[in-house]
Specification:
By secondary structure, the protein is mainly alpha-helical. It has one domain. It is built from 5 helices and no strands. Helix 1 runs antiparallel to helix 3 and helix 1 packs parallel to helix 5. Keywords: Membrane, Transmembrane, Transmembrane helix.
Length: 123
C-alpha cells in the first residue's frame, strides 16, 4: 500500500503536465482524458491517505477525547513502518528512473525545456 502513493502521485503529475492552453486547443479529446485520469488519481490518493489515517492509532492526536486504538494498530503496530519504508523506497526508485531518463536525453543531444540551448528558452 505504501508503494501505491508515490506511483499514483507520479501518474497524477504526468497526466497534468502537458495540459496548457495550446495543448487543449490541439488535442481536446486527449486533454479531457488526461483531466479525467488526474481526477481519478486524486480520488485514489484521497482514499489511500484516508485508509492510512484510519489504520493509525486512534488516540487523541492532540484534540478530542481519547479512544481505543483501531484493530489494525492493535494487532499489527509495526504496519506503519512497512508502509513508510515502501513509500520511501518507491519514491527513491521513481527519482532514480527520472534522473536516468534525463541523463539519457541530455546525452543524446535532446535538450530539456529548461536548458539554455532549448528553442523555447527566452535567451
Amino acid at each position: 500500500m505504501g508503494a501505491l502513493v508515490p506511483c499514483v502521485l507520479v501518474l497524477f503529475i504526468k497526466a497534468l503536465s502537458p495540459l496548457n492552453r495550446q495543448f487543449w486547443k490541439a488535442h481536446t479529446a486527449r486533454s479531457i482524458g488526461r483531466t479525467l485520469l488526474a481526477v481519478a488519481c486524486g480520488a485514489v490518493m484521497l482514499q489511500l491517505v484516508s485508509l492510512i489515517f484510519v489504520a493509525q492509532d486512534t488516540g487523541k492526536w492532540g484534540r478530542g477525547v481519547s479512544s481505543p486504538p483501531s484493530w489494525t494498530f492493535r494487532t499489527q503496530p509495526w504496519l506503519w513502518a512497512v508502509g513508510l519504508v515502501a513509500t520511501v523506497v518507491t519514491a527513491a526508485l521513481w527519482i532514480t528512473v527520472a534522473m536516468v531518463l534525463d541523463g539519457r536525453r541530455t546525452r543524446n543531444g535532446d535538450p530539456s525545456p529548461t536548458s539554455p540551448t532549448s528553442p523555447a528558452s527566452p535567451n
